Amino acid sequence: MKKLKLKGGSLTYAVVFSLIVSIFCMTLVLLFYYSSQSVSEYTDVFRAQLNAKSGINLLLSNQQIVGSPEKKTIDLYGNGTDSVELERNYWGAFDLVTATSIQQNYRFGLSALTGLKSISDSGNIAIYLSDLNNPLKIAGETVIKGNCYLPEGTIKAGNMNGESFIGDKLVDGVIRKSSSQGMDFNRDFMGYLIKQFTLDTMKLNSDSVINIDQFPLKDSVVNSFTNRPITIYSKGEIILSNVYLCGKIKVLSELGVIIKSSSQIKDVIIFAPDVEIEDGFTGALQAFATDSISVGEKCNLAYPSVLGVVRTVASKTNSSLKIHENSNFAGEIFGIQETADLAKHVFISLSEDTKVIGRVYSCDLLETKGKVYGSIICNKILYTNSSSVYENHLYKAVIDITKLPDAFVGTSVLKFNSRKGIVKWL
After folding, report:
1. How far apart are CA 85 and CA 66, in angstroms?
2. Which residues pair with 8 in a beta bridge?
3. How many Cα atoms are found within 13 Å in the side-chain-facing hemisphere of 60?
4. What digits encode the pLDDT tens for the residues 362-419?
């Protein structure tokens, strides 16, 4: 038999070929491994984001699982692998909600300000005026669009400043009879607000306190909503001038707060007996006072701003909120009181050429001479000029609920059929 002889180079070729095949196979294995890891990580990321969104939706529902303020970890689907940490706290007149989900080494959180969005006829109200046996009269170029709840279910053309009503119809909408009790406000919410005017409450909530009576305020203070609140405090008057304040910050004064137009303020809450916003200021904030709030001329307060006066039993005078000429406001304005007192009043006044996009509520008196693209709700409407005060009169005013954006979400100051909605993502 003839023997087959192989050349020595053939073995080398075989080894090299085997090595190439081995490298190729190892490469495929590594690619498959890293691909699997990437898919697994992507799945964890996607699942964490989905769980956080589900947590926010749960907080927006009518659930009784998480109160305010409260933090709780729950198993979303009861399978032991989809836990999410839910937290709800007040942030001024809104709720601050947070949902955080952890999947393996990936942590994802969502935070938002939430409020109430009407789902009933109350959301289409242009005017709600309590029935105190005094019908509403309008004069001049007054425009009312939307449903109205009025004393005796009637509205009349009047004459003011020598001018009769000018227009095709008194109301472009349905007119119904209002109640003598008016539209009641949320007293639990009022109780929460009253407590916020003391430093002890801030400390109880574990706020980080900056006492500017001892340490000067920096030009810029920024605090993420993932952190605990920073409270800027003074026993005396606080003047905010040439400062930048943004985020989870509270300003608390036992005397008063003055906000200069040179300041930039966003998402901050102000608590003081008196709050003054000077001419030309632009920003977005929440301001609450027990005595008075004054917004100067040519100011622009962007959504979601809130202005609220709360007359307490300790108040010695009327509580007032006034927006001066040529100022714009988007959000919610309200005036409430701890107890009714015939000698002391809550009075909201909107001057000429002001524009409000949102809702204006007074548990007592309200005057509007500008434009309200939304609702006004009160016990009595006043109109004042240099010589007289007219009760339940509107003159050259515009109240138009049809121009309120569909995305508008208000506070919980009023009680009506509503659902929770997102005011702002943080």
Report:
1. 10
2. none
3. 21
4. 999 999 999 999 999 999 999 998 888 889 999 999 999 999 998 999 998 987 667 8
pLDDT greater at residue 334 or residue 67 = 334
What is the pLDDT averaged over residues 178-191? Answer: 88
DSSP 331: E
3-state helix, strand, coil in the chain (%, to 5): 20, 45, 35
d(CA 336, CA 313): 12
pLDDT at position 288, please?
97
- pLDDT above 90 (res 360): yes
**Section 63-80 average pLDDT:** 77
Alpha helices in 149-282 (DSSP H): 187-195, 199-204
Is residue 151 reached through a cis peptide bond, with omega within 30 degrees of 0 on the bond before it? no
* DSSP strand pairing (282-295 vs 319-323): parallel
| Chain CA centroid to CA 61, Å | 18
Q: Is 226 helix (H, G, I), strand (E, B) or coil?
A: coil
Answer for the pair 361, 379: CB distance below 8 angstroms, yes or no.
no
Distance CA 411, CA 46 (A): 32
CB atoms within 10 A of CB 78: 8
Dist CA 329 CA 300 (whole Å): 6
DSSP structural state of residue 42: H
Q: Dihedral, CA atoms, 229, 308, 330, 97, nearest 10 degrees?
A: 40
Of 323, 313, 332, 381, nearest to 353 by C-alpha is 323
3-state class of 256 per DSSP?
strand
| CA separation for the pair 321, 367 (Å, rounded) | 10
pTM for the model stands at 0.86
Using DSSP's 3-state secondary structure scheme, residue 192 falls into helix
- 185 Cα distance to chain centroid: 17
Length of the chain: 426
Helix residue ranges per DSSP H, 128-181: none
Nearest by Cα to 152 from 172, 175, 168: 175
Q: How many CA atoms lie within 13 A of 101 on its CB side?
A: 21
- Provide the pLDDT confidence category of residue 78 given band limits of 50, 70 and 90: confident
Decide if 329 contacts 307 (C-beta within 8 A): yes
Under a CB-based contact definition with an 8 Å cutoff, are residues 364 and 347 in contact? Answer: yes
Q: How many CA atoms lie within 13 A of 224 on its CB side?
A: 5
Give φ, ψ of 27 to 5 degrees.
Answer: -60, -45
